[in-house]
Amino acid sequence: MVTKVQIRVHEYHDSVRLMQVSERVRREEGVQETILMMGTDNNKKILATAGLHTAEVEAAAANDLIVAIVADSQEAAKRALEKANALLMQRASGVSNTYRSVEAALGAMPDANLALISIPGEYAAAEARRALEHGLHVMLFSDNVAIEDELELKKLARERGLLVMGPDCGTAVIGQARLGFANVVRHGVVGIVGASGTGIQELSVLLHRQGVGISHAIGTGGRDLDAAVGGLTMLAAIEYLAADVNTEIIVLTSKPPDPEVARKVLESAARCGKPVVVNFLGGDPGMISAAGLTPAATLKDSVNEVLYLTAGDVSQGSGPGTAEIELQSLATREAQRLGPEQLYLRGLFSGGTLCYEAMLILREQIGEVYSNIPLNKKYHLTDPSTCRENTLLDLGDDAFTQGRAHPMIDPALRNQRLLQEARDAELGVILLDVVLGFGAHANPVEGLVDAIQQSRRQAEKEKRHFVVVASVCGTEEDPQQRSRQEKLLSDAGVLVANSNAEASRLAGAIILANRQAGK
Amino acid sequence: MANIEIKPLPYPTRVINVGLDLFAEAMQEQGIEVAQVSWEPPVKGDPELMAILDDLL
């Protein structure tokens, strides 16, 4: 085995490009491992864990690129380094007009109206401020932006009549422009304001499948409804959608806000003159009804409420009664394939809000679940590298994404985690989300299916079977194509549900059925 | 609050992308006009110094 480490001084590439190049080089013959990272302290720790901590690595600075290759031979290592270098030379192929600064870009595109910012959080606020000062709306994808900066940016935006979506805004749709992570859904009458990217994605996808389109989707970032920020973006977004002629119905979605902020938001929504469905996941519906608005408990419920308001086609296939019976009988059948000790569920999520929605549903069915983002602090997973009993993980949380791309872009971490969880003899069901759309991995199911098949082979040797339940947040028109991804999953024996809510209910029902069988 | 005039939603959207190439590519695929800023961290990587420079400029 040969290890080669190359330091390329003052050469910066973003984490996604580095992940893409690593992925390609790793597939070269004779290559065991490829890691391309900028020389930040955190990345050096990751390299050390991988046994690649050399004196050269230690000396690298944050804007030096580290290329580390482990290969079968000197020749293979040399070829891999050449391949990495060639791939790094090819900059974003289609994007020919690149500039050194926002000002230079504005010089070339004076009618630009929005800046999408996705640089490391510590530098992001300064760029956002600059963009606002030049009269641009801002979508701030970056996370790790100080809350004081967030407040200041949002106040500045307010003064200038502009929107700041984010920080940590994963998804926005303005008309038919999909920014960040977003699905190809039809254009229509529903305006969404959401504190989370995957919340917006799941809503827009489920509406699309029911024939309902969206006018705009405005992301606020996860902290907008905290007391410290005061819902400045959500309040502005409600004004925008109230004034927008294409928007007939508004959906608001977030985790339960600060009570005072919730009051302000509901007051503003009640005054906006359009019907508003409010989904404060797990929040108090009484406050929403009292404001004359429509409450919804989950993302799926929000879709049903919108369908009711649009008085469109509200038929849900075979109707809830039959669907419930079908789900129960499927759950009983699947539970029969499990051993009496396989009582637990593990959810491995790439979407934070999908994880949250699943916990809300499962809490009703099987009781509280452990998580790195728990509903109840008592169930906070102290060590996110080890699951216990029923656990749902948000793998897009900071604890997992330091120094690497989000699992929707880079699914490798989840695939590894699946292998780890599947070794547990008490595991009964694995619950997964697969998120498609612009920005997401080109074929997320491919590696997932490999991991499932590998785990199944191992379990079979131990005369064990485990159930995998998944849902695909995506549309037929998405670059990854929903039906193609679903077929790959079904062919691998995965039970594919129509929504995250349905997948969660099915997973919970299987665990319950196995508990009852053991009594 | 109500007396501040809000600018219309940025549509058609013309984007200055500061950061991930991936997003610029995804927007171009949709036919959105994009100018890419090739951002790099400041040489010393010192955010405090940058904040001072930002105030001066």
How do the helices and strands follow one another from N- to C-terminus of chain B? EHEH
Cα-to-Cα separation, first versus last residue of chain B? 30 Å
Low-confidence stretches of chain A: 315-319
What's the structural domain tally of chain B?
1
Average predicted local confidence, pLDDT of chain A:
93
Strand fraction of chain B: 15-25%
Number of strands of chain B: 2
Strand order of the largest sheet of chain A: 9-8-11-10-12-13-14
Indicate the proportion of strand residues of chain A. 15-25%
The greatest interface between two protein chains, and residues involved on each side, is: A-B, 70 and 44 residues
Rg over C-alpha atoms of chain A, rounded to the nearest angstrom: 24 Å
Q: For the record, give the distance between the C-alpha atoms at the N and C termini of chain A, rounded to a whole number.
A: 53 Å
Number of helices of chain B: 2
- Tertiary shape of chain A: globular
Could you give a short description of this structure?
With 519 residues, chain A is of the alpha/beta class. Helix content of chain A is 43%, strand content 19%.
Topology diagram in text:
The complex is a heterodimer of chains A (519) and B (57).
Chain A: E1 2-8, H1 15-26, E2 31-38, H2 41-49, H3 55-59, E3 65-71, H4 74-89, E4 98-99, H5 102-108, E5 114-117, H6 121-133, E6 137-140, H7 147-160, E7 164-165, E8 171-174, E9 177-180, E10 187-194, H8 197-209, E11 214-219, H9 232-243, E12 249-254, H10 259-271, E13 276-280, H11 285-290, E14 294-295, H12 299-310, H13 319-335, E15 344-349, H14 352-366, E16 370-371, E17 391-394, H15 398-401, H16 412-421, E18 427-435, H17 444-461, E19 467-473, H18 482-491, E20 495-497, H19 500-518
Helix pairs in contact in A: 1-4, 6-7, 8-12, 9-10, 13-19, 14-19, 16-17, 17-18
Chain B: E1 14-18, H1 21-29, E2 33-37, H2 47-56
Parallel strand pairs in B: 1-2
